[in-house]
From TrEMBL, chains A, B:
InterPro entries from the UniProt entry: HTH_LacI, LacI/GalR-like_sensor, Lambda_DNA-bd_dom_sf, Peripla_BP_I
Protein name per the record: Transcriptional regulator, LacI family
Keyword Transcription among UniProt keywords: yes
Native source organism of the sequence: Azotobacter beijerinckii
Segments forming domain HTH lacI-type: 42-96
Length: 369, 369
DNA sequence: CGGTGCAGGGATAGCGCTATCTTTGCCGAC
DNA sequence: GTCGGCAAAGATAGCGCTATCCCTGCACCG
């Protein structure tokens, strides 16, 4: 009943939608009524029938492929809207051997840092019609590998991964898949890979230089979680101190426990008890530093007079701590955005002029140093 | 070459894998070599051929369907392992009209609360082989609707949604889909729905009662974001104050801005400037309370002597604030876990004895009150 | 005025699985 | 024995799309 093409003065044999895709189809599939496997949602065929075109034309129209006359495309879009049609991503992925999906693996969602990165990625990908799959590896190489294996099965258009710390077999899978991949956050060992981040090593050095410039001489590094990036920051810090002949290996407190405010306070207490002479502490993550500031207040330790405290990442709360926490601000939104854009380019088959993008970092000097 | 069934004394005609699924298949599809649409990954057919069984048997074996003899199943699993076979989820979803996916929509990832809920959900779903899709609605009904529409297209096995605040059309889509759905966090308007949470209304009342019990008489409520749950907490607080004849509508500060530490400090300042006589403040979320405590310290406002401060959610950092923040602890891990389990039951077609599960809340009394 | 190029469509044929019959052989029962 | 019933496979037929080829009509060409 639909689709008598009165609007268009056709140049060809009129296409009879009901005959072609309605009645005949129903006749040649007599078991249609007993087959209950379908989802009940409208299919592309129904849209096509309603618009009076063939299914492929409908497919092309909805995908915005230009070889469809605008008038037809419009009819198809309208039919889709009227029926409430939504593509079946599984069917699309199967037929085209590619999904509309991008997978991201971050090591934690508890760290605000990665949440902000994800937001930036979303903001780039969503407008392109790409679904973002979020995986949390919990800082575990094995989970990271599982997630990658799992996601590769979905044939994502691209992958965004955090850092380079990865099992050998995960690396092989990635390579074998041929799926474009951009690495976020670190640069220091990203030779030959596409990566967007900053040098954790240099950031650690910058921390040391700032404390030295503030006249500090006995400085400690406190790191938790002990992921590669934290270790690199520590290493950068260490080297800069060595260079200034101020390095003391005893002034280093590392623990694999996950970073948290509570832990920061605890480590701060331990450190001061063991080394009361300390006059500066660099924390590998801001939440540790927050805990330290709170613990200092509780103990009456004066910050920064007695000990300067420097954080890392510049989480939103840092500027409001008492005293306001100095921290190294990391450009996670920019990293997320740029990494997403780079991935988009790779997905489009373009080669990227600058495969390694250093987004830098910024020292935020506040009251705590 | 593979699969001469020497191991099993067959009762039937021997199944010749190469003839059935190898050579003949290749002959009847002469264009196989020029078709480059395939992904290159091994398919179930190849696994079946290698194991010397039919594809359906291989499918059944890998899905653990018991009607396959253990010996065959073992051969299939081994073949799959040798080939590095991973199912194509798109093909599976298309063929079975269902995915191995559960979708979750939370209003924010910036709030630690929801991250912890997600972790609990993951912990339940992953072992069942279910993929968890995470959607962030940013406290927007429109985004919530978009996410739901989008996820429904994936034919998830189930949905976990936060709260009941939802557009009419989202509600209709959910109902029409017939996909099981569990609502998390709130109970107050969940009549007829499956929900796991606690009464935001009663939690708000408990906050008021605690402050009253502490001898406070001029109490304010500070809420940001203004999502339904925050408003309900405020409403519960208000009603309890009214009942005690202590309600003063001027002592309420609501803002649609997203909750944050910085905002908490700012609102605290505004409130005290406008109403210096206040002796108790209930913050709708802990990060606001954190900001207030820090701002109080900066201003020399003594907490709790001058003003008692009570938070909500009991975020991990609250116990370490100065003074330690009293807060209403919400059982988000338990909610996530229980909601996931309830959804699992619904997905299995079971009816749930208690469709509304009140997980309660716990007042954590610390130094700030 | 026949060739020939180019659009705008359509027909055909799967993508890689699984739901649903069928078939086969075997067992026990009447 | 014959037959019903059962268990363990296999054959068949799509799921809902899209890649790929193909067809048709028209414009343009010399």
């Amino acid at each position: 009943m639909v689709g008598l093409r009165t609007l268009q003065p056709s140049r060809r044999l009129p296409f009879n939608p009901d005959a072609a895709y309605g009645a005949i189809t129903l006749m040649t599939t007599p078991k249609n009524d007993k087959n209950t496997r379908t989802t009940g949602r409208p299919t592309l065929n129904e849209v096509a029938r309603r618009a009076g075109v063939s299914p492929i034309t409908a497919s092309r129209a909805l995908r915005g492929i230009p070889s469809v006359a605008e008038e037809l495309a419009q009819r198809v879009r309208e039919a889709a809207r009227e029926l409430g049609y939504v593509v079946n991503p599984a069917a699309r992925a199967l037929a085209s051997a590619r999904s509309q999906t991008v997978a991201v693996v971050v090591p934690s969602l508890g760290n605000q840092l990665f949440v902000e990165t994800l937001e930036a990625i979303h903001a780039v990908m969503r407008p392109k019609g790409l679904e973002v799959l979020i995986g949390n590896s919990h800082y575990s190489r094995d989970e990271d590998e599982d997630l990658i294996r799992n996601y590769l099965a979905y044939q994502p258009r691209g992958l965004l991964l955090t850092g380079f710390e990865r099992t050998e077999s995960a690396r092989r899978m990635l390579e074998a898949s041929g799926i474009p991949c951009v690495y976020m956050m670190d640069l220091d060992s990203g030779a030959g890979l596409h990566c967007v981040g900053f040098s954790q090593l240099r950031a650690g050095a910058a921390a040391a230089e700032h404390l030295i410039a503030r006249g500090r001489r006995r400085m400690a590094f406190v790191g938790a979680q002990l992921d590669q990036r934290t270790l690199l920051r520590g290493e950068g810090f260490r080297r800069a101190l060595q260079q200034a002949c101020l390095y003391n290996p005893a002034f280093e407190l590392l623990t694999p426990q996950p970073s948290s405010v509570g832990l920061g306070g605890e480590l701060f207490g331990q450190l001061l008890a063991a080394h009361p002479q300390l006059d500066g502490i660099f924390f590998g993550n801001d939440d540790l530093a927050h805990g330290a500031l709170l613990e200092a207040m509780r103990r009456g330790v004066r910050i920064p007079e007695q000990v300067a405290v420097l954080g890392f990442n510049d989480l939103p709360a840092s500027a409001f701590m008492v005293p306001r926490l100095s921290s190294i601000h990391t450009p996670r939104e920019a990293i997320g955005r740029r990494a997403a854009e780079m991935l988009l380019a790779l997905m489009a088959g373009q080669s990227v002029a600058e495969p390694v993008q250093d987004m830098g970092f910024e020292l935020m000097v506040r009251e705590s140093t």
